[in-house]
Amino acid sequence: xxxxxxxxxxxxxxxxxxxxxxxxxxxxxxxxxxxxxxxxxxxxxxxxxxxxxxxxxxxxxxxxxxxxxxxxxxxxxxxxxxxxxxxxxxxxxxxxxxxxxxxxxxxxxxxxxxxxxxxxxxxxxxxxxxxxxxxxxxxxxxxxxxxxxxxxxxxxxxxxxxxxxxxxxxxxxxxxxxxxxxxxxxxxxxxxxxxxx
Length: 197
Known about the structure:
Layout: H1 2-26, H2 32-81, E1 100-103, E2 113-118, E3 126-133, E4 137-144, E5 157-164
Parallel strand pairs: 1-2
Antiparallel strand pairs: 2-3, 3-4, 4-5
């Protein structure tokens, strides 16, 4: 019986060793199911991350364009003080090196460009600025220093507006022609503008 027990235990040891060796080989890689689960998780994370990234990029583009227009408004307001009109407002004498002024447009916010058009009154009491954001929006700023509605259709004050624009050339502006704005129309600040893509 001792011989049989010895053979049986030797046989059990071999079977257990073989099983352990087979399990070690099976644990050496990932199964197809495990790989599919990992890919599914990665897909879900990307579905969440990409729209968030695009939203942040759009907001950054829009804020850059708005910042350029605020700088243009500040420069034009400073320029207006001495001659009391915008008639001689030009690229070289606008009072800021940060913004590149372009008569009529198109202007790209990413290049710190702002297009401008003068009102048609004499002397010129109003000026319109525009710049295009890569988010597909043309942003506008209008200053009317006169005593009545200007050729752009606004009463005295400083106004901001926006319109959807596929390309920068959609933001071209001309003297005395009011742009077609979003449903928000002219606002006294950018935060009042709604309905943009």
